[in-house]
Automatic annotation (TrEMBL):
Ranges of biased composition (kind: Low complexity): 143-154, 582-601
Matching InterPro entries: GTP-bd, Mito_lipid_metab_GTPase, NOA1/YqeH-like_C, P-loop_NTPase
Pfam families referenced in this protein's UniProt entry, alphabetically: MMR_HSR1 (PF01926), YqeH-like_C (PF21516)
Region span, Disordered: 1-73, 132-156, 566-601
Lineage: Eukaryota, Viridiplantae, Streptophyta, Embryophyta, Tracheophyta
Originating species: Urochloa decumbens
Biased composition (Basic residues): 1-12, 569-579
Official protein name in the record: G domain-containing protein
Pro residues bias locations: 20-33, 53-65
Length: 601
């Protein structure tokens, strides 16, 4: 009995331990021949079965499996498909080129099936698995119930539009990791010119009604406002308006100003009417007095502020067959806003546009279906590259420091003539002349960017020793020269109250200085050549209740730079002491010879 129990079952031998026949010169021996039994090698693996259980019946030969069927969850894509996240043509041949995607792996039709749960203390199932058979009494239909339920839920999710969407590898990396998978492929991406691509449609007197959404970032209005597109709309409206007055058919393109990321401003201290009037005035200042806006909307896609009102106004202006174009600078929030509009309109399924805090997420024109009805069309366009913004020159790591992602907080200084304020290694504001004793300067920028206030006469030392270290961005002293030439612009500012800010000096892509004074001042602003700097009416009139002190602001960047500088100084002192002992030369005042210039704050 024991030898019979230890003997490997013939069916399991055929399935698990196939043996190759050894060639022989004579005819093959029968299986029961003693010589054939002696030539077979014993197997090192033994399968035990319970002594009381009867021997299992012979295992039938395995049935042929049906061919695999590709799952319908992910749509089939080809080289001519367009990525629904960014609009680029997809390809599956070269991962280093833009638009690469991985084809879904083939799956069987019942790949949603789930096995019945097996507990660790179920001894009957354990014994049945050892014998190679399911235990008696287990109804396969009961185990299929969870699978059927899961399949029904999946089908219901697909009906609701919650199924997966196949996007390119770039969009997948941006959605899940917030970064570009292949940075070297970014320079191969095509450039988009809205004036050349969409301009002829706006200039044509015939065709469907056109509406342009001019998007501007609330934290960088003048830097992100699409001036060229606004001037195009103004010129087309002026030309078509003359034809319309004479009775000729004319397509009058309309424009809506949409101020995005309203949640970044200190909203409790702002009046919506004041911001509305301020944004309307700044738009006409950037595009010219000929720009006629059909309305101004203040929205926050992250919190849903003003999205419903914007959608209702867009539907009213476009009608049943209109075309809507969302235009704005890079990272202004076009895709995020259109996804919020799609959710607000009740479109089935998840919005497909890729959202990421990376400039240039959208690469081509994408049509958003189902928002404006059956014949209305809503288009998302690639972000416009504004060379006058500081962000166009920064790396991805430097962009993370400059981008404003939370509600802005004021940082206020009280400074006198001959003092300066640095915003990182990007901007310096000098107080050159005053008719009063001092002025209030409030910095509105990302809290991750360190500040410094000190004497103007030490500005050269700051550039040489602290740019790229304590004052970031740029990250690294070698990046200072790569950003361009350091140039100066002069501003004459006047105010009539100490309590509020009278003027703003805005730096495109960074933020602005709020100036509060009762008198006149001559200010000099230094930044890199080509960066747009303007003087405007103050947007936020408040300032901080507690003023900043002279020197560097407390930040992690400054602390790490100071620690690194102290380590370098200690290494230099140690090496010089070793050299002096080896040369046996007397040293006079080694600290004075090695100490660096101290910034007088």
């Amino acid at each position: 009995m024991l030898s019979r129990a230890r003997r490997l079952h013939p069916a399991l031998r055929r399935l698990l331990l196939p043996t190759t026949p050894t060639p022989s010169r004579g005819p093959p021996l029968p299986p029961h021949h003693p010589a054939a039994v002696q030539t077979s090698k014993p197997s090192p693996i033994f399968f035990r079965r319970h002594l009381c259980s009867p021997p299992p019946p012979p295992t039938p030969p395995p049935a042929s499996q049906p061919p695999a069927v590709v799952s319908p969850d992910l749509p089939a894509a080809s080289a001519n498909s367009i990525c629904p996240g960014c609009g680029i043509a997809m390809q599956s041949s070269d991962p280093a080129l833009p638009g690469f995607f991985s084809r879904p792996s083939p799956k069987s039709a019942d790949y949603h099936a789930r096995l019945a749960p097996i507990t660790a203390d179920d001894t009957r199932i354990s014994a049945s698995l050892k014998s190679g058979h399911l235990r008696e009494g287990l109804d396969p239909s009961r185990g299929a119930e969870p699978a059927a339920a899961a399949g029904a839920e999946a089908e219901a999710a697909e009906d609701k539009g919650d199924g997966k969407v196949l996007v390119c590898a770039r969009c997948h990396s941006l959605r899940h990791y917030g970064r570009v998978k292949h940075p070297d492929a970014e320079r191969l991406l095509p450039d988009f010119d809205f004036v050349a691509a969409v301009g002829p449609r706006l200039a044509s007197p015939s065709g469907a009604r056109s509406l342009v959404l001019l998007l501007a970032d609330a934290a960088d209005f003048d830097g992100s406002f699409p001036r060229a597109v606004a001037r195009l709309v103004a010129a087309a409206g002026e030309a078509h308006g003359k034809d319309w007055k004479h009775g000729a058919p004319a397509n009058l393109p309309r424009a809506l100003l949409v101020v995005t990321k309203l949640d970044l401003l200190p909203t409790p201290s702002l009046s919506p009417d004041d911001v509305h009037a301020w944004a309307h005035a700044r738009a006409r200042a950037g595009a010219g007095a000929d720009l006629r806006l059909a309305g101004v909307h203040l929205v926050s896609a992250a919190r849903g502020w003003g999205v419903r009102d914007l959608l209702d106004h867009v539907r009213e202006l476009t009608g049943a067959r209109g075309n809507v174009w969302a235009v704005g600078a890079r990272n202004v929030g076009k895709s995020t806003l259109l996804n919020a509009i799609a959710r607000c309109s009740g479109v089935a399924g998840r919005p497909t546009l890729t959202e990421a805090p990376v400039p240039g997420t959208t690469l081509d024109v994408i049509k958003v279906d189902g928002v404006l009805g059956a014949q209305g069309k809503l288009f998302d366009t690639p972000g416009l590259l504004h060379g006058h913004q500081l962000t166009s020159r920064l790396t991805s790591e430097e962009m993370k420091l400059v981008q404003v992602r939370k509600e802005m907080r004021p940082r206020t200084y009280r400074i006198k003539t001959g003092q300066s304020i640095h915003i990182g290694g990007l901007v310096r504001l000098d107080v050159e002349d005053l008719t009063v004793g001092s002025i209030y300067v409030t910095v509105w920028a990302s809290p991750l960017v360190p500040l410094h206030m000190g004497k103007t006469e030490n500005a050269a030392t700051m550039i040489k020793e602290h740019f790229g270290l304590q004052l970031q961005p740029p990250i690294g002293q070698e990046r200072v020269k790569e950003l361009g030439k350091w140039v100066r612009k002069q501003f004459k500012v006047s105010g009539s109250s100490w309590d509020t800010n009278s003027k703003d000096i805005a730096i495109a892509g960074l933020g602005w200085f709020g100036i509060g004074l009762k008198g006149e001042a001559v200010l000099g602003l230094w930044t890199y050549d080509g960066v747009d700097v303007i003087s405007r009416i103050s947007l936020v009139h408040e300032r901080a209740s507690i003023f900043e002190e002279a020197g560097f602001t407390v930040s992690q960047i400054v602390s790490q730079a100071n620690s690194m500088t102290n380590k370098l100084k200690g290494t230099k002192k140690t090496s010089k002491k070793k050299e002096s002992k080896a040369n046996a030369a007397p040293i006079t005042a080694p600290e004075a010879a090695e100490s660096s210039s101290t910034v007088d704050a």
